[in-house]
Amino acid sequence: MYNPNLPLVYHPNYSFSFDPKHRFVVSKFARLKQYLATKGVLKDNLYQGQIGHYSDLELVHCEQYVRDLYHNQLCDKAMRRIGLPWSEQLMARTFTAPLGTYLTAQLALQHGVACHLAGGTHHAHFDFGSGYCMVNDLAYTATRLINERKVHNVLVFDCDVHQGDGTAAMLAHHPFVFTCSIHCEKNFPFRKQSSDLDIGLPVGTNDNTYLSVVESTLIDLIEQLNPDLVLYDAGVDVWQEDTLGKLDISWQGLEKRDHTVLSICNRKGVPVATVIGGGYDKDHERLAKRHAIVVEQAAKL
Q1: How far apart are CA 155 and CA 28, in angstroms?
Q2: pLDDT tens across 205-243, in order?
């Protein structure tokens, strides 16, 4: 039985016409929304964030960078580092999604848990994009909430298979945001940044080891930090068949991970906002179902 009141956040501009053979699956956001509707998780609990503008992201990003990005004035090298072809539709979703994560966090503070059907662009740095990430929704959301005094401190708990290097670098000197990244050590990015806590796992790490690390780490951090909010990056590229992952986590392991994280936050009374993070698969429907795991687990709380 699913919780019919679980807040879900989405915007129609998240998916648009895009090369279906590209490694980054733009259709996954719309597919995720549709799948959740067919499963009965999405009913009258959908919230729509505001349309974003590059000026919104000047809160945490270099003003020149976001303006040049928006107006297609970045050099070819900078765009190659991002790995996505510029388009007006891409810019619309790029600057809207961080506001969706921000809305998700606000809803989590009200309801205890909320899920964004996008987000987790943790490779975006202050003045450049990387790894399919152009602006950093996690850094933006944490910073804005603290600046607005809606929270005192935030824990960014990143379980994507790739280190959250952009988030780590952008929030390195923020006294009220703690960044934790649990990732595959020998994987992108090959030049790591320093999170407040980094746990780099060996290639081929299996369910038992992985789940033990996730559980013990989160419990310890909540006890030490007593955060007002957890921003949980539930990247599904840790799955054993992901085309860009190098860990050996089963589908059931993904379910247990998300259940563990959400249950710990619920038990400790800490609001948690989820973002979907990374996931790579030539089977686009299967990818949407993977990203749905965290939402389904949240709806079962």
Answers
A1: 27
A2: 999 999 999 999 999 999 999 999 999 999 999 999 999
Q: Residue 60 and residue 147: Cα distance in Å, rounded? A: 11
Within 13 A of 136's CA, how many CA atoms are on the CB side?
A: 31
Output the six-digit token pair for 237: 């590229």
Cα distance between residue 45 and residue 50, in whole Å: 16
The DSSP secondary-structure symbol of 249 reads B
Kindly state the DSSP code that residue 51 receives in the 8-state scheme. P
Q: What is the pLDDT of residues 120-166, one digit of tens each?
A: 999 999 999 999 999 999 999 999 999 999 999 999 999 999 999 99
Find where tokens 């990244």 sit.
181
Write down the pTM of the prediction.
0.98
Angstrom CA distances, 87 to 5, 15, 18, 24, 127, stand at 35, 13, 10, 15, 19
In what order do the strands lie in the sheet containing 197-201? 46-47, 8-9, 113-116, 272-275, 229-233, 154-158, 177-184, 197-201
Hey, is 298 helix, strand or coil?
Answer: helix
